[in-house]
Amino acid sequence: MRRALARPHDGNCMARSPTLAPPPAGFRYLADFIDASAEARLLAEIERLVFEPVVFRGVRAKREVVHYGARYVYASRAVWLAPPLPDFLLAVAQRAAAIAGFASDTSIEALVTRYPPGAGIGWHRDAPVFGPVLAGLSLGAACELRLRYRLPEGWAVFRQPLAPRSLYVLAGEVRASWEHMIPPVERLRYSVTFRTIRKA
């Protein structure tokens, strides 16, 4: 049975009291996807990367990104080629793909995102050009992933704390019909989102 949250709104622009929902169909969470030593090795490599700003509708976001495999252009909704996955991401990408169930005949693209303190990402669904499953690896500081689905009476909301070294998977219903967001973080966090490009 759903129960109402105490807050009058959730995230940004929740007009009515949201309803606390169980994990949506297609959502998976693995708290210890990698160990601390693997995280340290990844962070050492990621901190050497040259990040670029995210600009959406002329507004520069606080988060910064590096693209591998494919680059999604927000303004035109086009997909451009990007450098292939670097060696330090290959093994973790293959593990994430196996757990997420990516089709074996598709190539993996990765989006590395840097979230400095105060950075987050608003409500959205990943663009339809990306495949039906995505997997997100959390590194550095913890955060909270929020998911929402519109109901006639308001919003159904699911919240999942994302621990460092954890992996979440969005597939099926939650990938297709739910939006997700991350509120502004208090400490530096990185994420690596693994996706495929949807076939025509």
Structure description:
This protein is of the alpha+beta class. It has one domain: Sandwich (Jelly Rolls), CATH 2.60.120.590. It is 16% helix and 43% strand. The chain contains 3 helices and 15 strands. The strands form 3 sheets. A 7-stranded antiparallel β-sheet has the order 3-13-10-15-8-5-4. The protein has a 6-stranded mixed β-sheet with strand order 1-2-12-11-14-9. A hairpin with a 4-residue loop joins strand 6 and strand 7. The longest helix is centred in the middle third of the chain and has 14 residues. The protein is globular and about 50 Å long. The N terminus is likely disordered.
Keywords:
single chain, 200 residues, alpha+beta, Jelly Rolls, seven-stranded antiparallel beta sheet, six-stranded mixed beta sheet, globular, disordered N terminus
Q: Approximately how much beta-strand content do the residues carry?
A: 35-45%
Number of contiguous helices: 3
What is the strand tally?
Answer: 15
Largest sheet: 7 strands, antiparallel
Alpha-carbon distance between the termini?
A: 40 Å
CATH fold call: Jelly Rolls
What Rg do the Cα atoms give? 17 Å
Assembly state (oligomeric): single chain
Overall pLDDT confidence: 90
Number of domains: 1
List unreliable stretches of 5+ residues: 1-14
Query: In what order do the strands lie side by side in the largest sheet?
Result: 3-13-10-15-8-5-4
| Element order: H for helix, E for strand | EEEHEEEEHEEEEEEHEE
CATH class: Mainly Beta
Helix fraction bin: 10-25%
User: Outline, from the CA principal axes?
Assistant: globular
Structural class: alpha+beta
